[in-house]
Every structure is written in C-alpha cells, then in structure tokens.
C-alpha cells in the first residue's frame, strides 16, 4: 500500500490460498445418477443453494458429488466437506463438523449466516436420506 493512502472502509475478507484453490478448482463436482443418499440445502437469506449425492459401498462413502451456487466461501467449504467425507465410513462422516472443515481449509473469513457451511448440513441430510432408504429396505425384507 502506498504511503498516505487510507485503508478501505468496512470489513475486508481475505481468502487464503487453500480456500481460493477449492473455490477455483472445487473437488467432487457433479451428480451421481444412482446415489444412495441425496440432499438439497437452500438458504433463502443469502441465496446459496447446494445439492449433494453420496454413493455408499459396504458402509463407506465411495463417491460423493455436489453442485452449488453461492459465494466463494460456500463453494470452498462444500468442496472441502466432500474431500473430508470421501472414503470415510458413514459413521465417521456423520462426525464431520463445521470446525473440521474450517480447520482443513486453514480458516475461512467470517460470514453472516450459515450459508458458508451448508456442506456439512447437506452431508448430514444425505446420510439421513441413505439411512431412511436402508431402514425401509430392512423392513421390507
């Protein structure tokens, strides 16, 4: 910054290199046609929208995909959520928290509302969908 210039007024959001990388090169983007679990999370307060699919094989999340429209932070945290969940057992994936995602991204700028962390909510909802489907299969057998 040049001497004599004022700092910008208002908050400044700084995305670290890892967050920028997950935003510009998100992992696990797409859909799974024959998914075992699905979630659609929408935050009307900010307009973020996320869909997440999981494929479970022998109790392990073998594949996970998402589509998201939202801010850079929401995209990066959704991407990291899928990275953390892939290859985990369903029970391990249930324990992934917002704090785990933020730590894995080495920090995320503060953001009002829950839109930045919709990935963990979508993951849990997709797991609940998978469990409901499996519960119904078990009862019909």
Give the SSE layout.
Elements: H1 17-24, E1 37-43, E2 48-57, E3 60-69, H2 72-85, H3 90-94, H4 98-104, H5 118-140
Antiparallel strand pairs: 1-2, 2-3
Helix pairs in contact: 1-2, 2-5
Could you characterize the architecture of this molecule?
- This protein is of the alpha+beta class and 141 residues long.
- The protein has a single domain, classed as Alpha-Beta Complex (Sufe protein. Chain: A).
- The chain has five helices and three strands, in the order αβββαααα.
- The chain has helices spanning 17-24, 72-85, 90-94, 98-104, 118-140, and strands at 37-43, 48-57, 60-69.
- A three-stranded antiparallel sheet has the order 1-2-3, with helices on one face.
- β2 (48-57) and β3 (60-69) form a beta hairpin.
- α1 (17-24) crosses α2 (72-85) and α2 (72-85) packs across α5.
- The longest helix has 23 residues, at 118-140.
- The protein is globular, with a radius of gyration of 17 Å.
- Residues 7-12 have low confidence and may be disordered.
Summarize the entry for a quick read.
This protein is 40% helix and 19% strand. With 141 residues, it is α+β, with helices and mostly antiparallel strands.
The helix/strand class is: alpha+beta
Q: How far apart are the first and last residues' alpha carbons, in Å?
A: 69 Å
Mean of all residue-level pLDDT scores: 84
pLDDT under 50 segments (min length 5)?
Answer: 7-12
In the CATH hierarchy, what is the class?
Alpha Beta
Number of helical segments with 4 or more residues: 5
């Amino acid at each position: 910054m040049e001497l004599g210039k004022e700092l910008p007024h208002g908050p400044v959001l700084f995305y670290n290199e890892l967050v920028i990388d997950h935003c510009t090169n998100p992992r696990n983007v797409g859909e799974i046609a024959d998914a075992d679990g699905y979630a659609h999370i929408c935050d009307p307060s900010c307009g973020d929208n996320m869909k997440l699919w999981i494929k479970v094989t022998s109790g392990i999340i073998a594949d996970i995909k998402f589509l998201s429209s939202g801010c850079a932070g929401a995209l990066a945290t959704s991407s990291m959520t899928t990275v953390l969940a892939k290859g985990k057992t369903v029970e391990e994936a249930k324990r992934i928290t917002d704090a785990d995602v933020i730590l894995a991204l080495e920090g995320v700028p503060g953001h009002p509302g829950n839109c930045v962390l919709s990935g963990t909510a979508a993951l849990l909802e997709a797991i609940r969908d998978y469990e409901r489907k499996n519960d119904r299969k078990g009862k019909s057998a």
